[in-house]
Automatic annotation (TrEMBL), chain B:
<keyword id="KW-0472">Membrane</keyword>
<keyword id="KW-1133">Transmembrane helix</keyword>
<dbReference type="InterPro" id="IPR009936">
    <property type="entry name" value="DUF1468"/>
</dbReference>
<feature type="transmembrane region" description="Helical">
    <location>
        <begin position="12"/>
        <end position="31"/>
    </location>
</feature>
<feature type="domain" description="DUF1468">
    <location>
        <begin position="12"/>
        <end position="144"/>
    </location>
</feature>
<protein>
    <submittedName>
        <fullName>Tripartite tricarboxylate transporter TctB family protein</fullName>
    </submittedName>
</protein>
<feature type="transmembrane region" description="Helical">
    <location>
        <begin position="74"/>
        <end position="91"/>
    </location>
</feature>
<feature type="transmembrane region" description="Helical">
    <location>
        <begin position="118"/>
        <end position="140"/>
    </location>
</feature>
<keyword id="KW-0812">Transmembrane</keyword>
<dbReference type="Pfam" id="PF07331">
    <property type="entry name" value="TctB"/>
</dbReference>
<feature type="transmembrane region" description="Helical">
    <location>
        <begin position="43"/>
        <end position="62"/>
    </location>
</feature>
């Protein structure tokens, strides 16, 4: 079987001592930042990106991936123990997880979350392995028109899954695309929107934008509520779930995995949506829906499995098409480009060891998380008591070092301050930053493919609808847009996000 | 007539998008637009800028009909100390060198919190600098000058 020989190659790659070490570092760092409130996976990966230059491409991508799913685990720990989700995707876990903790079942809740996540991680790793090759084969047929349409689908879906106003999210995409075009035009060499600053001729630094919008702006938001933060922690005792709890978690874990895997592939933040969808489904399916919100096992097991499955399968569009499904994946693209790898369908055929190594490392990383995290919970809990005013100067210093070490360009540091301000103001105006970042990454690609497609079709714009794959993709994009604007869906969407806030 | 009520947040938001879009549009017009077949460097940005202006206008107009929550207060102190920190690092990292520049960057950032005092800020910045020099400069071997020309005697 091809699948098994591929997976064998993957495990051989991921299993070298060096790669295991970086996988371990990644998941530990990920858990750490998942536990610490006020710093997310996006900002951390952006900060660490430059430091991974020195590593082998496989090692660096394995480590960055580890940070991402490690953060999901860490986020659920704080959600359960102190009712404060470290990551937005574990916001739902806090509802029932914290109630379980208050009933003295904190240990069991943590174990359920960890085991559910591990199961989901295992299944979705295999899903990635099964679905990646055929999708890659399709993607190899893609021309400029198809790529253009595919990116439109990605951008539109990111809008659909963003919080709040759809029009604002659309505007954020447009703004992101425009910012992505800053720099030298690839066809003519004309500098665009550089305001005459030569240092911006290569475009705005992606790391600077991500650090500014996701890191610096977030710090300022956290500083607003400084005086009100108090930590009330539940005690952890007895990690093993009871037999009854074990029975109750099986079905939700399986359903959560299925929901998460399906939604994770969608561009635009699969893990968050997956956990909400799973919670809703569990509540509907339950014979005792009144227990939800009072410490239902299914309310922890389902969403936790779903968000982990979603986190894993969001690698599918990245690995097969080179299209990011969420800001973290956008950063992974940045990491690949820095390492000299062109993201897209060619990765699987030209660099099979890298491709399958990353997939295999996800499973290894999930195993590490289960083995490490349950005993280490005491340590993570201690970390929660570190006050924020110690954390943020450290974050600021690391941000500065990280951004500067990308190109040793001091103008990138000014860009960090600028985007920090922009990100903060936009957050104040209730605009989500994720569509902006996706737009920024896709801007140059979108323009390049549009221009090439128009040249190839001799200026005939119908090329996007006469080529079948492109037409289907555009139809999907239109359908998503229509659905988002439908009054009933709009209302439902608002409800979902209100619940989250 | 009823008293004028509008959603301040969205009105500002819409106006900002319109202004930004207009800025990009004006800049694009200075570039070669080309034709639909061979798009020049200004073509795609001009279209996008137009879309941004349009969306901004929609947000602005929608804001006029409803009343919304006011914007929460800004963290002025945070902005005052957080934003200059990376700028300071950028201005001094070549002159002062990595270690002193990082120390002051962290030191500035510290004061964004009301809970910070002078003594603790110095200790924290110092520890952070030692750690960073050890990890990034010696450990990872990033090519930074530890002490720059301004502090060399």
């Amino acid at each position: 079987m091809d699948l098994f020989s591929n997976l064998a190659l993957g495990f051989a790659t991921a299993g070298t001592p060096e790669n295991l070490f970086f996988c371990l570092i990644g998941v530990l760092l990920g858990t750490l930042i998942g536990v610490l409130p006020g710093i997310g996976a996006t900002a951390t990966i952006a900060m660490l990106l430059p430091i991974t230059f020195q590593l082998e491409p496989v090692s660096s991508l394995i480590m960055l991936a580890g940070i991402y799913y490690g953060a999901q685990y860490g986020g659920s720990t704080t959600a359960i123990l102190i009712n404060m989700p470290g990551e937005s995707s574990s916001a739902v876990t806090a509802i029932d997880g914290y109630q379980m903790a208050r009933k003295g079942r904190a240990g069991a809740a943590l174990a359920i979350a960890a085991l559910g996540s591990f199961f989901a991680g295992t299944v979705s790793t295999f899903l990635v392995a099964i679905f990646a090759p055929p999708l890659t084969a399709i993607a190899l047929q893609f021309g400029s028109a198809e790529y253009f349409s595919l990116m439109i689908v990605g951008l539109v879906s990111s809008i659909a899954l963003a919080h709040g106003s759809v029009v604002k999210a659309l505007a954020m995409v447009a703004l992101g695309l425009l910012l992505g075009l800053v720099g030298t035009d690839i066809y003519t060499g004309t500098p665009r929107f550089t305001l005459g600053i030569r240092e911006y001729a290569d475009g705005l630094n992606f790391v600077a934008l991500a650090v500014g919008v996701f890191g610096v702006a977030e710090i300022m938001r956290n500083l607003e509520g400084e005086s009100t933060r108090t930590v009330l922690m539940a005690k952890v005792s007895g990690l093993l779930p009871s037999r009854q709890e074990f029975k109750e978690m099986i079905a939700p874990v399986i359903r959560g995995t299925a929901i998460g895997s399906a939604l994770g592939i969608l561009p635009g933040g699969g893990a968050i949506l997956a956990s909400f969808a799973s919670y809703t489904v569990e509540k509907r399916m339950s014979k005792t829906p009144e227990e939800f919100g009072k410490g239902a096992v299914a309310g922890v097991a389902g969403p936790e499995s779903a968000n982990n499955a979603g986190a894993q399968t969001s690698f599918i569009p990245l690995l097969t098409l080179g299209i990011p499904a969420n800001p973290v994946m956008a950063l992974m693209i940045g990491a690949m480009i820095i390492q000299g790898i062109v993201p897209g369908p060619n990765v699987a055929t030209e660099q099979p060891a890298l491709f399958w190594g990353i997939i295999a490392s996800m499973w290894i990383g999930n195993l590490m998380l289960v083995i490490l995290n349950l005993p280490l919970i005491g340590l993570w809990v201690k970390l929660l008591t570190v006050p924020y005013y110690v954390l943020f100067p450290v974050i600021m210093a690391f941000c500065s070092i990280g951004v500067y070490s990308v190109n040793a360009n001091v103008y990138d540091l000014y860009a960090v301050a600028f985007f920090g301000l922009i990100g903060y103001v936009l957050a104040k105006l209730r605009c989500e930053p994720a569509p902006l970042l996706l737009g920024f990454v896709l801007g140059p690609l979108l323009e390049e493919n549009l221009r090439r497609a128009m040249i190839l079709s001799r200026g005939d714009p119908t090329t996007f609808v006469t080529r079948p794959i492109s037409a289907i993709l555009l139809a999907i994009a239109v359908a998503v847009l229509i659905v988002v604007f439908l009054p009933s869906v709009k209302k439902k969407r608002e409800e979902v996000f209100v619940e989250e806030a | 007539m009823k008293s004028i009520s509008f959603d301040t947040t969205n009105a500002i938001c819409g106006a900002l998008f319109v202004a930004t879009g207009a800025f990009f549009a004006i800049q694009s017009l200075g570039l070669d637009l080309g034709t639909t077949v061979r798009m020049g460097p200004g073509y795609f940005p001009l279209v996008l800028a137009g879309v941004l202006v349009l969306l901004g206008a929609i947000i602005f107009i929608q804001a006029l009909r409803v009343e919304g929550e006011p914007i929460d207060p800004f963290a002025w102190r945070g902005m005052l100390f957080i934003l200059p920190a990376p700028v300071f690092f950028g201005l001094t990292v070549r002159g002062l060198g990595f270690a002193p520049s990082l120390f002051f960057t962290a030191f500035i950032a510290c004061f964004a919190s009301q809970k910070m005092n002078l003594f603790f800020a110095i200790i924290l910045s110092l520890l952070l600098t030692i750690f960073s020099v050890a990890v990034f400069s010696y450990g990872l071997g990033l090519p930074f000058e530890r002490f720059g020309p301004w502090v060399r005697f």
